[in-house]
Amino acid sequence: MIVLGIESTAHTFGVSIIDYDKKKVLSNIIKGFTTKSGGMIPAKVADHHVENCDSVISQAITKAKIKESNIELISFSQGPGIGHSLRIGAFAARTLSIKYDIPLIGVNHCIAHLEIGRALTKATDPVLLYVSGANTQVIAYDGGKYRVFGETLDIGVGNFLDSFARFVGLGFPGGPKIYELSLKSKNYIELPYTVKGMDVSFGGLLTHLKKLYKSEKYKLEDLCYSLQETVFAMLLEVSERALAHTDKKELILGGGVACNLRLQEMSDKMCKDRDAKCFVLENRYNLDNAAMIALLGAMMYKEGRIRQNIKDTEIHPYERTDDVNVTWRK
Ligand code: ATP
Ligand code: FE2
Question: Is residue 256 part of a domain?
Answer without folding.
Answer: yes
